[in-house]
Amino acid sequence: MTDFRLIASDLDGTVVDPRGRISPFTKRVLRAVEESGRSLVFVTGRPPRWMAPIVEESGHRGVAICANGAVVMDLHTEEVLHSRSLDATQSMLAVNRLREVLPEVTFAVERIGAGRRADVEFGREPTYVPRWPTPDHPPLAPVEELVAEGGVIKILARIPQAEHAAIDGDDDRPAHARALGPDPTRNIPAAPLVDALLAKAAAALVGVASVTHSNPNDTLLEVSALGATKAVALATHVESLGVASHEVVAFGDQPNDLDMLRWAGTAYAVANAHPAVLAEITGRSASVHDDGVAHTLNEILGLGLAP
Fold first, then answer.
1. What is this structure's pTM?
2. 10-residue block means of pLDDT along the chain (307 residues)?
3. Which of 35, 66, 101, 170 has its CA 20 to 30 A from that of 303?
4. What is the rounded distance in angstroms from the CA atom of residue 222 to the CA atom of residue 35?
5. Residues in contact with 53: Cβ distance below 8 Å, sequence separation at least 6, in sequence order
6. 3-state secondary structure the chain
7. Is the separation of the CB atoms in 7 and 31 below 8 Å?
8. Terminal CA-to-CA distance of the chain, rounded, Å?
9. Domain ranges of the chain
């Protein structure tokens, strides 16, 4: 049995189920992981403002890597330990490159402040249609104004689709589940567009910014500072702990997880993962619907917990 010292896991679609919950068995396993002396790190596309429900749901109060690697956050204090952000000039270069290849694109912005959180964390263009929880009364302004103060951890770039309004109205999850954020396992017909959009955006942003997507059921691209990825942030954090990559096991399900899964010494894709992830990552856990991560950890760490 490999002596894994650190477990890194994505959240939505990996340990957070379609109802926005972390199952009782998964909670027990995650607690046992930490009690065993191993480090547990959530590595997620969520911005810091989406982490409070996860802390409450999971009980994990350690370190999380948020916004696809742009922010390392202490979940107990909500202190930002490290961040990599875009300034106004870098943001507008990325915006203009995207406008060239995706003329209909609309933008929103996630920001971070020094030390902890920004006064205004989220703002959007009036034409940007939010599909997931946003703060009440966010600033509505052209993206040029939204990025002017810098500190941009994510530019959200969405191609509007007629289906979006219906999708929001058809989200039958309870309010607490919707508050936990998007469900990448929902089978929504608009989905396949985003892979093609990502390919165009990635080509346009070479040398400018990092871009990915985390939900096949949305035409949303997530743009961060060049080199701000889950893999880079996790590798830096792991090094600070004196842990080597071969002592890390990682779990994920979407394209924004691929670089992390490639980097980790041992990697598992959950069975409900994006086809690109399933094609490349040979390690396999059962789906999020079946507590795949928890069962795999229980087995490979020899925790001996009964489901």
1. 0.88
2. 88 89 95 96 94 90 95 90 95 98 96 66 93 83 96 94 49 49 53 84 98 89 97 97 97 96 98 93 96 98 94
3. 66
4. 34
5. 176, 179, 180, 181
6. CCCCCEEEECCECCCECCCCCCCHHHHHHHHHHHHCCCEEEEECCCCHHHCHHHHHHHCCCCEEEEHHHCEEEECCCCEEEEECCECHHHHHHHHHHHHHHCCCCEEEEEECCCCCCCCCCEEECCCCCCCCCCCCCCCECCHHHHCCCCCEEEEEEECCCCHHHHHHHCCCCCHHHHHCCCCCCCCCCCCCHHHHHHHHHHHHCCCCEEEECCCCCCCEEEEEECCCCHHHHHHHHHHHCCCCHHHEEEEECCHHHHHHHHHCCEEEEECCCCHHHHHHCCCEECCHHHCHHHHHHHHHCCCCCCC
7. no
8. 21
9. 6-84+229-300, 88-225
Q: Side chain identity at 51, as an amino acid letter?
A: M
